[in-house]
Amino acid sequence: xxxxxxxxxxxxxxxxxxHRDPAADxxxxxxxxxxxxxxELLDTPVxxxxxxxxxxxxxxxxxxxxxxxxxxxxxxxxxxxxxEASNIxxxxxxxQLTALAHELNNPCCTxxxxxxxxxxxxx
Length: 123
Hints:
single chain; two-stranded antiparallel ribbon; mainly alpha; about 120 residues
């Protein structure tokens, strides 16, 4: 199953996970995240597989500032909710979520590295 989310789904996750963060500073970031995880080149998905699509969402939402305070929190929440909506049960520990947040702050952060982190979340 290939799950594609839209901007309203991301904004709903942000509202739930953002803990009273004011409105988004830049709505272009969730729009870009949606386009990125759906990306195709010559009718072939750019991000093949659920973990790669989740990582593309997380990378864009976590690396590009679009919320005043909650970028990393929302990016981690998007990862959990996207994987669960894709029928991949996950239960990341606080340490795993912290590690993902640190990776998102790493200038060498890539979608492949994030996907590797997300794969470790499977129980």
